[in-house]
């Protein structure tokens, strides 16, 4: 973690000006930029590492030679090898590079927002590219924070550059943007999606000072849907709920018919590996910081290409202190999210996204323990499925399943969802309701679709369907992240209520304009949204009704009375739901080779009562507190040993021969 990681954002007035597509200043095209992060076109990787010339006589020749060899193996600048491995401080290197090239250093301390030649909606480009065009004292200046091969390009082009270029560090650039350009960054992280396309966001349409309007509208809609159809058309309404339940069940059963795909793509060589960003949003997670960072550093990925961003809240001093105790880590940064509403995970992720350097971005939670090979496995999945894939979803697996009956049921539920249902939906070509963790994105595509909706409390599921509306695909791939299940019913209920509320938000947002949804996403995505997003909530809400109908027929009805068609539907829906849950969970546990724990599926009818309770609680919160994020406490359980193997990229990486 470098010194700039403690820079806080300054409160700023958020502009409500609509955004628009505007080209970047033409001066940005003239910058001696490195190739894209995919390293597909090296451009500057041939010949000597000119960026090391300024270090000759400063560092040992043997060290410089090893850095050059390592840079050639990874396909990056040798200066980045030395900086990212902590062999030299970035500021010290820039001073030597400045002396060598005659290019001045500008720490941007004397600049303000008016000097930047970028509109508010273009500020994120500066954070992502490391380039800031300035107009100061009547002259145009391009400030660059060298990345990838930029230092090599500067050294080779120093005599032919006819623009006033200046050097700056990533720390100085980030500090300047967080202080002087806070307003557009805050706007982008909180209301960016809603300002670009209000119909795609769950953001409130009314001012925060008048929340009663939104509550009244939501309450009236819920009341009308819940009371009028059952009162006016009770039989038809009951049949519709049963059919919805059966459709959801049919989809779950259909996914059981597909085997999990293994990707045959060749391993990606180290010099072709892209820069990879990993973002983790933390709040009151001080005890989770050390094991989290240990797990992330155990990822089998060159540290020189790994970019870890931990996002914390301004009032969470304990978590910030825990990160500070880790010491300096050049590949790890801490960002402090702005103290503005809403205080949600997607807002924190949006705050970090402009600063992500990677061509690919992964999202994890505080308690996550990903398998060491997960980033490489994700890249294989992207290669195997084609360029239209924007997101790859890894499997989530519970590793504290023995703590309680609830955690055991949680384990079976996760196994069915992530090891059976999502791979089956991938094989069927359906959009995926993404999990909240272990999502791997093409960063450019993620930015194109507006990133996460800060006002949706299941931002993951919403994003999965929004990607489909933009013509992108999501796929599941065979790699596991181990997670911690809630230990007690109250914690589980808060978490599941938030999920149900987010599913309801997602369904309402995308079905607000059904014709447009059909036109943009197609019929399969339209029905998938209604069956999965709507089905998750509706089936949970309707479960007591169907259970009552079944019990009424089996216990209280006279034996000579024939069953009517509505009751038959309810009985069929209940039976099919039980069968699909057992099939999905059992197959998932079989694929996990833990079928011996599948006995917990016998408690499915009781578990559904808990789900129904969470769903009705979610409806109440949807009306009164739609954007409230009920945090799940982590670090409370004793977990199975899942410590990743030590990461030795020199041994485990797929290398190219020395050239």
Describe this structure in words.
The protein is an alpha/beta fold and 659 residues long. The chain has a domain at 3-11 and 32-187. 48% of the residues lie in helices and 10% in strands. It contains 23 helices and eleven strands. Strand 1 (131-136) and strand 2 form a beta hairpin. The chain is elongated and about 95 Å long.
Question: TL;DR of this structure?
Answer:
The chain has 23 helices and 11 strands.
Distinctive features:
single chain, 659 residues, alpha/beta, eight-stranded mixed beta sheet, three-stranded mixed beta sheet, 11 strands, 10% strand, disordered N terminus
Give the low-confidence spans: 3-42, 643-659
Strand order of the largest sheet: 6-5-4-7-10-9-11-8
Number of helices: 23
Shape: elongated
Largest sheet, strands/sense/barrel = 8 strands, mixed
Helix and strand content put the structural class at alpha/beta
Q: Gyration radius, to the nearest Å?
A: 27 Å
Q: Share of helix among residues?
A: 40-55%
Q: Average pLDDT across residues?
A: 84
Strand content: 5-15%
Q: Please give the alpha-carbon distance between the first and last residues.
A: 33 Å
- How many distinct beta strands? 11
């Amino acid at each position: 973690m470098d010194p700039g990681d403690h820079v806080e954002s300054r409160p700023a007035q958020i502009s409500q000006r609509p955004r628009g597509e505007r080209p970047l200043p033409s001066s940005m095209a003239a910058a001696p930029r490195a190739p894209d992060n995919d390293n597909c076109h090296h451009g500057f990787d041939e010949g000597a590492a000119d960026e090391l010339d300024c270090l000759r006589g400063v560092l040992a020749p043997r060290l410089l030679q090893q850095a050059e060899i390592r840079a050639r193996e990874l396909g990056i600048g040798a200066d980045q090898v030395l900086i990212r491995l902590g062999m030299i401080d970035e500021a010290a290197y820039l001073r030597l590079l400045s002396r060598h090239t005659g290019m001045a250093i500008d720490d941007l301390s004397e600049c303000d927002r008016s000097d930047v030649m970028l509109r508010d909606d273009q500020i994120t480009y500066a954070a992502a590219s490391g380039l800031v065009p300035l107009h100061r004292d009547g002259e145009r200046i391009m400030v660059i924070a060298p990345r990838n091969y930029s230092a090599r390009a500067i050294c080779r082009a120093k005599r032919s550059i006819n623009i006033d270029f200046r050097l700056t560090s990533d720390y100085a650039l980030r500090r300047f943007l967080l202080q002087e350009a806070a307003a557009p960054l805050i706007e982008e992280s909180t209301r960016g999606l809603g300002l670009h396309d209000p119909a795609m966001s769950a953001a409130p349409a009314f001012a925060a000072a008048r929340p009663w309007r939104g509550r009244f509208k939501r309450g009236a809609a819920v009341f009308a849907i819940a009371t009028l159809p059952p009162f006016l058309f009770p039989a038809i309404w009951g049949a519709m709920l049963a059919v919805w339940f059966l459709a959801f069940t049919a989809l779950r059963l259909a996914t059981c018919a597909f085997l999990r795909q293994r990707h045959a793509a060749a391993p990606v060589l180290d010099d072709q590996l892209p820069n990879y960003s990993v973002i983790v949003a933390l709040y009151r997670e001080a005890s989770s910081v050390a094991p989290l960072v240990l797990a992330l550093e155990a990822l089998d990925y060159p540290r020189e290409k790994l970019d870890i961003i931990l996002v914390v809240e301004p009032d969470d001093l304990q978590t910030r202190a825990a990160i500070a105790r880790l010491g300096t880590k050049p590949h790890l940064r801490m960002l402090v999210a702005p103290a503005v509403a809403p205080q949600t995970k997607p807002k924190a992720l949006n705050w970090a996204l402009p600063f992500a350097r990677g061509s690919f971005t992964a999202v994890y939670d505080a308690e996550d323990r990903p398998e060491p090979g997960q980033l490489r496995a994700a890249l294989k999945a992207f290669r195997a499925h084609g360029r239209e894939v924007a997101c790859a979803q890894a499997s989530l697996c519970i590793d504290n399943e023995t703590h309680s009956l609830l955690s055991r049921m949680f384990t079976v539920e996760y196994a069915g969802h992530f090891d059976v249902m999502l791979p089956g939906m991938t094989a069927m070509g359906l959009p995926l309701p993404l999990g909240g963790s272990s999502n791997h994105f093409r960063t450019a595509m993620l930015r194109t679709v507006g990133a996460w909706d800060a006002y949706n409390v299941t931002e993951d599921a919403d994003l999965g369907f929004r990607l489909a509306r933009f013509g992108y695909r999501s796929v599941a791939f065979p790699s596991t992240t181990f997670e911690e299940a809630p230990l007690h019913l109250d914690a589980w209920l808060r978490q599941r209520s938030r999920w149900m509320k987010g599913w309801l938000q997602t369904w309402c947002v995308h079905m607000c304009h059904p014709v447009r949804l059909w036109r943009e996403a197609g019929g399969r995505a339209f029905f998938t949204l209604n069956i999965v997003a709507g089905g998750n909530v509706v089936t949970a809400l309707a479960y007591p009704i169907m259970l009552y109908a079944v019990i009424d027929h089996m216990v209280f009805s006279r034996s000579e009375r024939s069953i009517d068609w509505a009751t038959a539907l309810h009985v069929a829906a209940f039976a099919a739901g039980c069968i699909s849950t057992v099939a999905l969970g059992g197959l998932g546990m079989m694929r996990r080779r833990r079928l011996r724990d599948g006995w917990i599926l016998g408690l499915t009818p009781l578990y559904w009562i808990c789900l129904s309770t969470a769903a009705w609680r979610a409806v109440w919160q949807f009306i009164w507190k739609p954007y409230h994020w009920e945090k799940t406490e982590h670090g409370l359980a004793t977990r199975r040993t899942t410590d990743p193997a030590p990461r030795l990229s020199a041994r485990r990486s797929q290398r190219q021969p020395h050239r």
